[in-house]
Amino acid sequence: MFPPAVSAVHLVTLRSRLLRQGVWVYRVGPWLIDTGPAHARRQLLGWSGSAEADGCLISHGDEDHVGNAGALQRRGIVLRAPPEVLAELNWTPRLPLYRRWAWGTPEAADVLPLHGPVDRDGWRLVPIHTPGHSADHFVYHEPERALVFSADLYVAARVPVARPRENVGRLIDSLRRVRELEPEMLFCAHRGPIDDPAARLTAKLDWLEELVGRARELAGRGWETRRIARRLLGREGVITWVTGGEYSKANLIEAALADSGSNGPGTDIDTI
Hints:
six-stranded mixed beta sheet, Metallo-B-lactamas, NDM-1-like, Metallo-beta-lactamase, Chain A, RibonucZ/Hydroxyglut_hydro, MBL fold metallo-hydrolase, disordered C terminus, single chain
């Protein structure tokens, strides 16, 4: 499943299991990709891969990706992230209760700016800005081996809910961009390793593009967001109640109708 020098740990706690969610942290060469959530700290630090790494590259600032930054720093691991991520990092966030309950509150750490690719021990990781899920979202591309560490870019072909900050137009652009890299493997933070990335990315793109088209058609007839969501996605589910409305089908329709430029431009970071 894993190429040589790539390993992973699937961080699952009782609380995350109740939400049917876990987080994968990957080690590629000397680097970790993300830190996982604070509630899974013991599991992360007990994993041999975390002891074999001396650096960590952060994909974006969500608490399930940066929760153990402080613990890794105390181990001597150097944390780095692109400037767009650093601009969004908040070590004292006012997280909704369900997010604190599920993932825990991140512990502060010093994160150095990453201005370009990193090269070591025969591995090269290129940060690529892939906004949509969030304005600060990045994936890491290993071009020689055609690997992409995709964080929250993919997750599933159909994710029928969204948070208010998301932008489907930017997500579509980012998915296309990663598909054009022709990866042989995708390493998703929530789905795990994916060995048929072209088909998975295409399936997600097809679903989102159809959703955007139908949502815009109904909006053009004067339909309001909640009515469109109910027609295209069905009634809101338990997740909307649990998250106090932060994750909802109506939010996904809002994200589908949003100006595609509102979530920040996608950029490569090509020089260090």
